[in-house]
Amino acid sequence: xxxxxxxSNNRDFTIVHGDCFDVLSQFDFKFDMVFxxxxxxxxxxxxxxxxxxxxxxxxxDWDKGGTAESIMEFNxxxxxxxxxxxxxxxxxxxxxxxxxIFSIANLLTELGYKILNVIxxxxxxxxxxxxxxxxxxxxxFILWARKSPKVPHKYNYELMKAINDGKQMTDVxxxxxxxxxxxxxxxxxxxxxxxxxSRIILASTNHNDWILDPFAGSSxxxxxxxxxxxxxxxxxxxxxxxxLSKRRRMEIDNEEVxxxxxxxxxxxxxxxxxxVIKEPPMEYGINELPF
Length: 291
Ligand SMILES: C[S@@+](CC[C@H](N)C(=O)[O-])C[C@H]1O[C@@H](n2cnc3c(N)ncnc32)[C@H](O)[C@@H]1O
Fold this sequence. Notes:
Blueprint: E1 6-7, E2 13-17, H1 20-24, E3 31-36, E4 47-50, E5 53-56, H2 68-84, E6 86-96, H3 101-110, E7 114-123, E8 139-146, H4 157-163, E9 172-175, H5 194-204, E10 210-213, H6 220-227, E11 231-236, H7 239-251, H8 255-264, H9 266-275
Parallel strand pairs: 2-11, 3-6, 3-10, 7-9, 10-11
Antiparallel strand pairs: 1-2, 4-5, 6-8, 7-8
Helix pairs in contact: 2-3, 5-6
Bound molecules: S-adenosylmethionine (SAM).
């Protein structure tokens, strides 16, 4: 039986401590959107510069590489489970780098998804490249695909255009890498910026929609979802990140913190100022999830 580790008071945020392969195969529920930031399997002793010092960039045991075949199998399995959990008009977003994104794109097509876009996240403040033997890595990619080639998906075109000063939003997003204020409750080594997740969520979901993140980490997806009045289920296997997720969610129960976050997020504060008049967090009486 699945047990939630933490559920927010208004039931818009649930985090489960466990392995997503086990958890996803144990319940039946359909989501409007999935965001997945899977292990890139790159923690093999690499180094970088941080604050003038050479540091090891290993992220943790969860990111240690296997063989090409085992990584492919890992990705095929969770992509299959996530497809079963999507509504027919649902979409999935997957972040990655050149190391994993091409094989994931092939798997998406193999499994019956239809790729809609490949977003290039151009970081405005990328970390330096210390070897000076090739170009500094300053981008990550985010694949956007829908469950079914035939069923139309949600895309909030007008909103994206409005956020982009009245011009069509392109597939290149210039956004900063993670900022210090986003780590107020503790650190995750591969934490994604709230600005990135809130744009993804605003583009492809509506109020009250359900969003799943099978590799939740610090639950950036869940925090962005709740700031946008969407509902969230996250699954994370490392207890320290499940606890971090809980702290992050409890932090935005404070109205002042919540409003500050909204102010800092350009896309969200745009909505707050111009489209929606200060919506309070939603109250959900019924726990729709089966746990
Ligand atoms: C790339 S990080 C996600 C970071 C997240 N996007 C954030 O903003 O904090 C991937 C996470 O997946 C977790 N993970 C790896 N394998 C998992 C599995 N089989 N089930 C659940 N979580 C897993 C890791 O512990 C790690 O925290």
